[in-house]
Write a structure and sequence with these properties.
The complex is a heterotrimer. By secondary structure, chain A is α+β, with helices and mostly antiparallel strands. Chain A has one domain: Alpha-Beta Plaits, CATH 3.30.70. Chain A has 7 helices and 11 strands. Chain A starts with 11 loop residues before the first helix and ends with a strand. In chain C, helix 2 runs antiparallel to helix 7. Chain C contains 13 helices and 4 strands. By secondary structure, chain C is mainly α. Classes of the chains: A alpha+beta, B mainly alpha, C mainly alpha.
Chain lengths: 251, 172, 399
């Protein structure tokens, strides 16, 4: 059917199709937020500053047999309550006891999120919920977390927990909820208000073991830097070259 | 012929819908939804004028949450925890009710407008009695000042949104 | 070549179609109810835990997604590789691909901890994450295969058929590479962290997709009293045989390489020898049922003329494929990560060093089966609404 006039012939199907396409494009276009990979972002912020790199050192020799004060303190600090379901209950810090296969030496230590410089969990998170703050603390932004658990698959230290049930009575400074993933935050809620001691370190000192020390790895004058300078320390799974923020002595 | 009749039906329906919606929206603007017995009930105004806070509270919260979580900048003016602290109501025995429970502060609006609340899957719904220091400077200011109309305006941090706003929630 | 007529699918008796659809809808409803329960209660009601974070729903989802990209193969052979006997089946191939992907994605999304946040996933992208790329690849697949189907059905855009066909072929390779890389990019676990995961998934997609295609094609034609020629079926059968052999080859390379590296002896021992249910699934499920018996059914002269052998072989390939993905996804998680090489874990507060237990719950199985039902239901509805099935698939006169 040829149309002699210069009007575009537009039947109803085409018009509806065109409108829908336009509406779709307009709806989607402003919604796509390209979020740069947080690990590379080095903007200075009024809060976190890349001048610092927060880390921890754990002395396996001082970690006492049968003690779990740090675990209890962490649970209390963040209102982490178990539900008698050890397989699904969240755990931000845990004790591990090892025996060397060849030499038989027994070791005891605590494991938590290692706050890597190149965290695999940050790499794999599809929504940038898992991110590394500029001062080195690896966190989960629960506003973005969709609960896909890919970060839990990717974490080489099995540091992350998924919340398997609805929660109530959360700690004010540790909002946590069903369907999101979480892990040790190096007590960032304490740090950001000037309290430089994590709950686990505080508890360990109170017990008299002082196996955990938190501090600024970038500050050569800090206690942790002095300790790491004088003593031989290792990273767990050092071969992965993730440059963890948590180091171990006597392991 | 069929298409023009259809078009007329559409336009009529649309106009009728708008005509019905307007008085409903008007009604929203007038009533107060502050929970009786909450701390907010004893205060003259919220941290921002009522219409402002009603319309923009999510914008304020989203801005603050990105600053706090991603940048670690804790200098937020009004935190969600401060809202909960102020707006939580108490039951007969004097213990706090969850702020998002039925007929409590959040739900009265959100239920009516059918906007689902996502915050309290993770955030605490009652004030935490053990907290002494609060991240909301605004809450502290409200406590410190004598009850007055414009004290919530902090002129040094004014962004133009709150300046020169008359205070007051119309109570029914 | 005589003109090819396409017709909507009408079964011999209407009851068969509608009862079949009703059955599928019932499975979908149960799946949805299970998903709702899991989301409402939280994942503690499932068998998944902090040790095995991806369970049966993910096995189903990955199985369907991998099969979806493979189902498009027949259409690609018709348009990209110039196989005239495959070309008439291109429309159905596209429809099946769309249906399977929809089914797989629905299971994946409904198992998320926060499925209500899907819009966050679609608007916040971390482009270093292969998962984020997969979101784009999966959504794009719908669009591209939709356009592909359109070029096959609408004569006015027929000239776009070949370029879109090429584009669709490369897109589906990218998609399956992305799916395999979900595992291949994980450095943490011994069973993953292998470059071979991506091409292995591509080959698996060829195999599973074609098996799905053959079974559903034969079923549809049987129930609608239409004919498929022996030559065409023989071609499909032989192609399936090649793909099954290829999957076997990739499995061999993957395991041999791991066996060579002392570091990976643990996981190999686990899968091949003393992993209990995972070892059984590997040898009996994947190798015997999924590869050896189908190869026998396909290539043995005794079954040369038998259609039931083809159907049986396809079905067994699917069963074996399901077990293969189960071993990859769940076996790979069940085996403990080696955080302390050379040391034995005596005690741990978080199940370090022990093989994780995983027992699927009914809800997970229901969700997975619901996804399969959704895929088949979409295909059933699509083939009733659109002309995707050729009137007849008899062999052409000139052989």
């Amino acid at each position: 059917m040829s149309n002699k006039s210069d009007q575009r012939s537009m039947d109803r199907r085409h018009f509806i199709g065109g409108t829908v396409a336009a509406a779709g494009a307009i709806t989607i276009a402003p919604g796509v937020i390209l979020h740069a990979v947080a690990a590379i972002k080095e903007e200075p912020s009024a809060g976190a500053s890349s001048k610092h790199r927060w880390g921890m050192v754990v002395d396996a020799n001082k970690c006492a047999e049968g003690c779990s004060a740090c675990v209890e303190a962490c649970d209390k600090e963040h209102n982490i309550r178990g539900h008698d379901r050890p397989r699904t209950d969240a755990k931000w810090i845990r004790t591990v006891k090892l025996k060397d296969n060849q030499t038989g030496r027994i070791n005891r230590l605590v494991m938590m999120c290692q706050h890597c410089e190149f965290p695999p969990c940050v790499d794999v998170c599809p929504t940038n919920a898992s991110f590394r703050r500029v001062d080195g603390i690896v966190l989960v932004d629960r506003h973005r977390c969709i609960g896909c658990r890919y970060c839990m698959m990717a974490c080489p230290y099995k540091a992350r927990s998924f919340i398997h049930e609805a929660l109530h009575d959360q700690a004010v400074s540790a909002p946590r909820g069903k369907g999101c993933v979480e892990s040790c935050t190096l007590c960032v809620h304490r740090l950001d208000y000037g309290n430089m001691k994590t709950a686990c370190q505080e508890a360990c000192e109170k017990e008299g073991h002082a196996a955990i020390l938190f501090g600024d790895l970038n500050d050569p004058q800090s206690e942790i830097s002095q300790v790491l300078l004088k003593n031989n320390s290792t990273q767990i799974r050092a071969d992965l070259e993730l440059n963890t923020g948590v180091r171990y002595l006597n392991l | 012929m069929r298409s023009s009749f259809f078009r007329r039906k559409c336009i009529t329906g649309l106009l009728a819908g708008i005509a019905l919606a307007v008085p409903a929206l008007q009604a929203e603007a007038e009533s107060s939804l502050v929970t009786k017995g909450s701390e907010a009930a004893s205060l003259d105004t919220c941290v921002a004028p009522t219409q402002e806070i009603r319309r923009y509270h999510m914008e304020f919260l989203k801005h603050d949450r990105d600053e706090v979580v991603i940048d670690g900048d804790r200098r937020v003016k009004y935190s969600l925890a401060a809202c909960v602290n102020c707006h939580s109501g108490k039951d007969d025995s004097g213990s706090y009710l969850p702020v998002n429970a039925e007929e409590q502060f959040c739900e009265t609006c959100h239920d009516r407008l059918a906007v689902s609340l996502d915050c309290f899957q993770c955030h605490r719904t009652t004030p935490d009695p053990t907290i002494k220091k609060f991240s909301s400077s605004a809450l502290n200011r409200l406590h410190d000042r004598s009850i007055g109309a414009t004290a919530h305006v902090d002129s040094t941090e004014s962004s133009g949104l709150f300046a020169n706003e008359p205070a007051g929630i119309q109570r029914d | 070549m005589s003109k090819m007529y396409y017709r909507e699918l009408y079964c011999g008796t209407p009851v068969r179609y509608w009862m079949g659809l009703a059955l599928l809808v019932a499975f979908i409803a149960i799946g949805l109810a299970s998903a709702l329960y899991m989301e409402h209660e939280g994942h503690w009601v499932t068998g998944m835990s902090n040790q095995v974070v991806w369970g049966l729903p993910h096995v189903f989802a990955i199985f369907l997604i991998v099969a979806a990209s493979g189902a498009l193969n027949v259409a690609s052979i018709g348009s990209v590789f110039g196989g005239p006997l495959y070309k008439p089946m291109g429309r159905y191939s596209s429809l099946l691909a769309l249906g399977l992907l929809a089914g797989g994605l629905s299971v994946l999304v409904l198992d998320l901890g926060r499925p209500d946040r899907l819009i966050v996933a679609m608007t916040n992208y971390n482009f270093k994450s292969i998962f984020a790329w997969n979101v784009i690849l999966y959504s794009g697949f719908f669009a591209i295969v939709g356009v592909y189907l359109w070029t096959m059905m609408d004569r006015s855009v027929k000239k776009l058929y070949r370029p879109v066909g090429f584009f669709a072929f490369f897109w589906r390779i990218a998609l399956t590479t992305g799916t395999g890389s979900i595992f291949g990019f994980i450095v943490a676990r011994e069973a993953y962290d292998a470059a071979v995961m991506a091409p292995m998934f591509v080959i698996m997609s060829f195999s599973f997709g074609l098996a799905f295609f053959i079974i559903t094609l034969i079923a549809a034609y049987l129930w609608s009293d239409r004919h498929i020629g022996d030559l065409r079926l023989a071609k499909l059968k032989n192609l399936l045989g090649v793909f099954v052999g290829a999957v076997l080859y990739f499995t061999l390379v993957y395991n041999l390489t791991n066996l060579y590296a002392t570091q990976h002896h643990g996981i190999e021992r686990f899968i091949l020898l003393d992993g209990g249910v995972y070892t059984q699934m590997f040898w009996i499920g994947q190798i015997l049922i999924g590869s050896v018996i189908p190869l026998f059914l396909i290539y043995s002269p005794a079954f040369d003329k038998s259609r039931w052998a083809i159907v049986a072989a396809s079905a067994l390939v699917l069963v074996g494929g399901f077990f293969q993905i189960y071993v990859i996804v769940i076996g790979g998680q069940a085996y403990p990560m080696s955080l302390f090489p050379g040391k034995e874990v005596l005690e741990s507060g978080f199940f370090d060093g022990v093989i994780a237990t995983y027992v699927p719950s009914f809800y997970e199985a229901a969700l997975g089966v619901g996804g399969v039902a959704l895929a088949l239901a979409l295909v059933a509805i699509g083939s009733r609404m659109f002309k995707v099935f050729p009137e007849t698939l008899e062999d052409p006169e000139e052989a």
